[in-house]
Q: What sequence folds into this?
């Protein structure tokens, strides 16, 4: 047979509520992650099939054997490293607090006492909220996608939300959301591409080799610059 992986079709879990990394336009999936994984696949000679799902379903689907790869603006965390192996980091993100643009009472996390914070299931933002709600005295509302999370604050059901900085900065710049970012980033995590832990060393190597080649030949920068003004 061919050298392992060659011509192989890998299923890739994505979260299309996540521009500029992943979104749907007409019948097409677009964004930084989409272009990156296509470019890596092309560079390394494998095929991919994109599977859009709620972010919180991606790691479970991987564990159930339904996905080979996940690229979903997914932060590299120690907790996830118990279940998946990550590629080299490909983007610096970090989470931030967001409120309605008319809200002058919440200017930092210390102002969250008695407030309601919307978070997205399965995200590092939801984990941060779980870990810190006791200390700061806020409650959480869980939703399954970023669009719904933004609506919770736009319509006043929640007082604040936690989202990745580049995603909310892009959303505020491109849509009429009535939201604003407050305070400093709550962490400085990086995005990685995930494969199921311990079983996919060869595939992970291809992903890392592809990523390194794209960084070297300028394609990585080209992809980023297509979606984000530097
Ligand atoms: N970066 C965050 C995480 O990994 C959010 C990802 C997302 O919502 N697609 O949890």
A:
């Amino acid at each position: 047979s061919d050298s392992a992986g060659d011509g192989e079709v890998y299923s890739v879990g994505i979260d299309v509520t996540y521009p500029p990394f992943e979104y749907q336009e007409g019948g097409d999936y677009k964004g930084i992650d989409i272009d990156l994984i296509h470019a890596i696949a092309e560079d390394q000679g494998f095929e991919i099939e994109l599977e859009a799902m709620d972010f919180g379903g991606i790691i479970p689907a991987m564990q159930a054997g339904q996905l080979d790869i996940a690229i979903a603006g997914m932060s590299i965390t120690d907790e996830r490293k118990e279940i998946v192996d990550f590629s080299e980091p490909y983007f610096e993100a970090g989470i931030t607090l967001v409120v309605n643009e008319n809200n002058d009472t919440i200017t930092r996390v210390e102002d969250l006492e008695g407030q309601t914070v919307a978070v997205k299931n399965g995200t590092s933002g939801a984990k941060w909220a779980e870990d810190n709600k006791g200390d700061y005295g806020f409650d959480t509302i869980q939703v399954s996608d970023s669009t719904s999370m933004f609506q919770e604050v736009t319509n006043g059901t929640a007082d604040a939300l936690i989202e990745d900085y580049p995603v909310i900065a892009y959303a505020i710049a491109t849509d009429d959301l009535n939201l604003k970012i407050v305070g400093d980033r709550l962490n400085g995590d990086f995005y990685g591409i995930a494969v199921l832990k311990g079983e996919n060393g060869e595939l992970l190597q291809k992903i890392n080799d592809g990523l390194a080649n794209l960084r070297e030949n300028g394609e990585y920068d080209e992809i980023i610059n297509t979606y984000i003004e530097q």
